[in-house]
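Q: Give me a backbone?
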Amino acid sequence: MILIIIQILLLIGIDVEPKRIDCNKCDIDKIKIVNENLEQLDYEMVMEFLCTLDVICRTNTEYSEWSNEMIFLLLENSPGTFFQALQDEGLDVLNEVLDKIKSPVMEFNYQEIHSKIENLDQQGSVKNKILKALAIAAGKAGFKIKK
C-alpha cells in the first residue's frame, strides 16, 4: 500500500525525500546572507549556512571565526529555526556546531542563550548537547550557567 502511495506521489511530481541543499563547504557568502538577514531569517537560509560547516574549514580563519560567531547569533536571535535546521542536518554538522559552541571566539551572554534554548519546545539529545556545550563555553569564560 505504501509503495502505491509513493508511486502516485512520484507520478504527480511530489518529492517523497527531503530536498538536500547543494553547497560548498566553507562558503563565506552563506554566512554573509545569514548575517544580513538576522531579523527575518528563514529555514532555508539557516540550512544553507549549516551545510557549509565542515572540519576542513577550521584552517580557514575568516570562515571559522565568522561561522562561530554566527552560530551564537542564531542561538540568540532564531533558536527555533536554528534547531529545526540543525535537526535536519547530519551528525557531522551537529558535531561541528557543538565544537564551535564549546570554543567561542568572543564572549556572549551564555545565560540568556541557555534560557532561550531551555525554553524551546524541543526535546531530545540535540537540545541537551547544545545546553552542555554552552555550559562548557561559559565555564571557559569564567561563568556558571544558573538553572
User: Anything to note?
Assistant: Residues 21-140 form one domain. Residues 13-20 have pLDDT under 50 and may be disordered. The radius of gyration is 17 Å. The chain has one domain: 21-140.
